[in-house]
Design goal:
The chain has a single domain (18-229, 239-432), classed as Growth Hormone, Chain: A (Up-down Bundle), CATH 1.20.1250.20. The chain has 19 helices and no strands. Helix content is 76%, strand content 0%. By secondary structure, it is an all-alpha fold. The longest helix has 40 residues, at 17-56. α1 packs parallel to α4 (96-113), α1 packs antiparallel against α6 (126-156) and α15 (317-339) runs antiparallel to α16.
Length: 456
């Protein structure tokens, strides 16, 4: 007696174009919300550092206290490579979405707890140590958040629109920084001197709680990226040790990304964390003017980044990066010169000039963080590359810039620091980088036997 063959299950219908666009929009929102929370915290901490400094360090030397508060950022960022390695391994093995859910929880908790810390006057040296612990947690988790979110968005995107879509991830960082600046400025305006110094500075950090809850809701509503599902559904492209595999097979694109991103880290974090304080301390502008001028420039940059993404999707990544590096060398000293007039208008104008290299670099470095690496190790490899370069220089730049101005008495020492990074990037892009726009995501962009990357 023979048994009838079981009926075949009809394949699921392919999603419509409208459904796919809707899913991509949700993926962009879900990926970007964590970047927003991270940069809101980073921007808020950077802008509030001079106000927070007396709460965590002795008040005998103001410069030392501010440097100590900035140094905590730098030390915390040193833990980002460790966090990126651990989270990258998890993201390449169990998925981008699950990893990004946990990073958001940890980031929100670490940010909110800053508001509850005791002061140096209350517990002595324990106060800055507790602050350091929370910043280390934040830095460790952030080591996997940004690259994971970028990989998630890129893996959802069409090949010819990847820079455009990832421009929204870049924008979420600037919107978060802008929100941090706005909240810091509002806090400084609402509270008078003693109230701000004693407890008012704590209030903005509590906003991380509702922001994280919104982010968790958004990330819980989106599926895993189609590219990751495609690469892992039969188990053939899942590696047991993605970190080891990334270091073995992806070392060249890792070094290429490091050479490019150092420039972008110095450029961006000189602007958003150091320059407003320089306007106040060295040029004599009221604090609210320094913060407001910076907020205006960020608000101008935000709508231009999608345009930069569209341009890069048409002409490629390398022309954008070369133009941005040259702009760093030529235009940043001009921006500093304009700002030396010491007026609010000059502060705004100087930062608008500063936006030109930002336009050509910011979103393009973001999309390269995913495009340079193969799917099987994308999270791990991009985490290693990003945190070995961008994160470290992001953390140390406010400290180094403050120290350079204090040592040499001129902001052009900071430009020299940036120019070294820009020259390095020019060499790397022109001599060693393979063009990645419209390339196939799963392919190795740097084949060991030569040859071109596979087309989309």
């Amino acid at each position: 007696m023979s048994s009838a063959a079981p009926p075949r299950t009809a394949p699921a219908p392919a999603p419509s174009a409208a459904d796919r666009r809707s899913a991509i929009r949700r993926a962009i929102g879900a990926g970007s919300i964590g970047n927003f929370v991270e940069q809101f915290d980073y921007g808020l901490y950077g802008y509030m550092a001079p106000i927070m400094a007396p709460a965590f360090f002795p008040e005998s030397d103001k410069t030392v206290a501010v440097l100590g508060t900035y140094a905590i950022i730098a030390v915390a960022c040193l833990f980002r490579p460790l966090g990126g390695t651990l989270l990258g391994r998890w993201g390449d093995r169990v998925g981008r979405r699950k990893t990004l859910l946990w990073t958001l929880v940890a980031m929100g908790a670490a940010t909110a707890l800053v508001a509850a810390l005791p002061t140096y006057h209350q517990v002595g040296i324990l106060a800055p140590l507790l602050l350091l612990v929370l910043r280390v947690v934040q830095g460790t988790v952030s080591g996997g958040e940004y690259v994971g979110a970028v990989a998630f968005i890129v893996e959802w995107a069409e090949p010819d629109r990847r820079a455009y879509y990832t421009s929204f991830a870049s924008n979420s960082c600037f919107v978060g920084t802008l929100a941090g600046a706005g909240v810091a400025a509002l806090t400084s305006w609402v509270f008078d001197g003693p109230a701000l110094d004693s407890w008012g500075w704590r209030m903005p950090f509590l906003l991380a709680i509702p922001l994280s809850l919104v982010g968790l809701w958004m990330r819980s509503r989106i599926a895993e990226s189609p590219e990751f599902v495609r690469a892992t559904e039969d188990g053939t492209d899942v590696v047991k040790s993605p970190v080891r595999e990334a270091l073995r097979s992806q070392w060249r694109p890792i070094l290429v990304f490091c050479g490019i991103s150092i420039m972008c880290a110095i450029l961006s974090y000189t602007w958003v964390t150091f320059y407003p304080q320089y306007l106040t301390d060295s040029l004599g502008l009221p604090r609210w003017m320094g913060l407001a001028s910076n907020a205006i420039s960020i608000a101008v940059l935000i709508p231009t980044l999608p345009l930069a993404g569209k341009l890069s999707d048409r002409i490629g990544r390398k022309p954008m990066l070369v133009t941005g590096a040259i702009a760093c060398i030529v235009l940043v000293p001009l921006a500093f010169r304009v700002g030396e007039a010491g007026t609010f208008g000059a502060a705004v104008a100087s930062q608008l000039i500063y936006l030109i290299p930002e336009f050509f670099l910011t979103g393009i470095v973001t999309v390269c963080a995913a495009e340079l690496f193969a799917t099987r190790t994308r999270f791990s490899a991009s985490a290693i590359a990003y945190n070995s370069s961008f994160s470290i220089f992001m953390g140390i730049t406010p400290f180094v810039a403050t120290l350079l101005v204090d040592s040499f008495g001129t902001i052009y020492a900071v430009w020299a620091y940036l120019a070294v990074g820009a020259v390095l990037a020019l060499v790397v892009v022109t001599c060693f980088m393979t063009e990645t726009y419209r390339s196939q995501l799963g392919a190795d962009k740097f084949p060991r036997q030569g040859g071109a990357p596979q087309p989309a």
